[in-house]
Amino acid sequence: MKMKKLLLPVVGASLLVPGIGSTVLAAEEAPPTETTGVELRATLDSLLSEHYALAVDSMMKIYDGDEAAEEAMAALDENAADMEPVIASVYGEDGGAAFVEIFDQHNMGTDDYAAAVKADDAAMQEEALAQIQSFVDEMGEFLGTATEGNLPEDGATAALREHEDYVQNTFDLYVEGDYEASYTMYMEGFTQIFGAGSAISGAISAQFPDQFSDPNTPAGDFRSTVNRIAAEHFALAQLSLAKGYNGSADFDFVNWAQDQNTEEFRSALASVYGEEASNQFVELWNNEHIAVQGDLANATASEDEQAKEQAVSTLTSTFATDLGTFLNTATEDRMPLDETIAGVEAHEQSVVDTFQQYVNGDYAASYDSYRAGYAIMFDIGKGLSGAIVDQFPENFENTAAPDKMPSTGFGGMSGQSNTMILWVALSSLILAAAGGLTYRQTRKQ
Length: 445
Known about the structure:
78% helix; disordered C terminus
């Protein structure tokens, strides 16, 4: 495919992104977490990570013979279609169309591989893997050429191959019944795909500095990390509910993965502030949220309507109020109380709706709710990261401009340092809010 013809001027900094209603501000006017470059990075983070989550979900459902598999594949295709206007806003309509044409080939190969494994068809497996490799090569060429080398083709190709390995290995380990290894691989792949948003947005901002500010600032890194942990939580929650309802063999292991997601916060908090402060947040999160999701799955499976209604009420009302109050107190009103409670409630309702529609067999509606709920996590991430950066600006000073042309792929040490920034900032938040939460818990007792 000839890529040079796709290099068109940037149409503008406004990105057409379904589900993310963010107004892109001029770099000199925007808060540090809302600059043109950071908004571009967040948009790519959202769509690319949703692709990863849906790819694994669809492959599991195909292999399991789940009746929702067809709609899972359709959601994966819809995600690819939503990437077209984003790429077109930078490289024109031809560029957007070429990008999606390559991506559609990838989705087909992924689905075909899962079907081939289920059918134990070795020839079909090889054909699917060849199709996926073709995607890796063509997309690497596209990114290298479109960005005029700001994202080197070799680095892009290597990182895309790594992404595909994470998807395939997660699935293969799932098929083998090695669930702990499978979910470990899943979480590592989730982190890796967020590096793609950083690398691609960095390359675009280097190519068009008049249109996009640097996305890879400390504040931009922080917003991306908050988004990653929030989005991973949502994806794991949906897997957990469906697995619990179906009595799947890996149910305990997806819940183990949810615990690892929570532990990203707790362990660092304990090392800095001790067990008491770190456990304030974890107790609320686990008792009113994670455990209650399990109650919802069990109650639905056993057709216990009273228990199901109680679980839904706890998630959408009690937990939403308590977490919203916690965040409002911690950020010293930077996250307005009523809006924050409403945001958490919207998240919980999307979790419940996705699950209930799945149970009812309305799979198209379930994946519509899934995609809307996934986007909500990035709205929450934007609000939370913006509040924390405003509250602790000294932790996010841009003292040195980072390299915008990563040559070794999408991953690397930056993700680890970003998580440490998150841990330090949230440590301060939780310490500040611990007193208020302790009071509410004492009152309940």
